[in-house]
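ARCHIVE RECORD
Type: protein–small molecule complex
Small molecule: iron/sulfur cluster
Source of inputs: curated submission
Record status: active
Notes field left blank by submitter.
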Amino acid sequence: MRGMARVTVEKPYRGATPDPAEATREAMRVAKTGRLPLVEVFYSLQGEGLRTGQATVFARLAGCNLACDFCDTDFRVQETYAPEGLVEEIERVGGPCRWVCFTGGEPTLHDLQSVCDALHIRGYRIQMETNGTRPRPGWGVDHITVSPKQPQGGRLHPWYERHAAEFKYVVDGEDDLRRALDGAAHGRPTFVQPNALNPAAMSLCIGAVQAHPDRLRLSLQTHKFLHIR
Ligand code: SF4
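STRUCTURE (tokenized, with ligand):
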């Protein structure tokens, strides 16, 4: 074996963003101009986790610090807003709705402090969906949903162990279930959510919830069943 090169075989990237690194560079280029890079702003129902079924305006920020193989979001920049323009768009799109969810991509890549302040003054409650690698304590987010991505290189920052409202683990295999059970030790509601690209993941998740009824719950992407965004 002497002299033989060690070859690492990586899973091919199958996520929804054609070039995640370039998409993120572009998002950061926009951010440097003082504008916010968005994929979309839309009004729907929260489909996952504790807030399932609640009307919510979603503001999807562009760019992500990870590139997960199973990512179902194309996080390329589609539109840009000044911070005050984003607040106006959220009000326009959602009408009477007073829940907004910042998602991505990874929303913590961007500075949403002034947007969060303005929304709170207007009576909004704010949810953020994050991979949990970058804390943003100053924003005063009301409901933090952390979807840890350790196998994809996303080290969970300890701040989230104390401040997450819920943890949500995308499950592909047994290793993910073990991580979810570790995550449940933080004492927060902990969901397992089957990877939509893996038909075997659903029964794994159901079995895990049945085996650990006090520690795990099932989260389904109900918006996909309803054919809404
Ligand atoms: S952390 Fe989320 S948005 Fe980023 S690549 Fe992974 S699944 Fe996609």
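CURATOR ANNOTATION: Residues 20-170 form a domain with the TIM Barrel fold (CATH 3.20.20.70).
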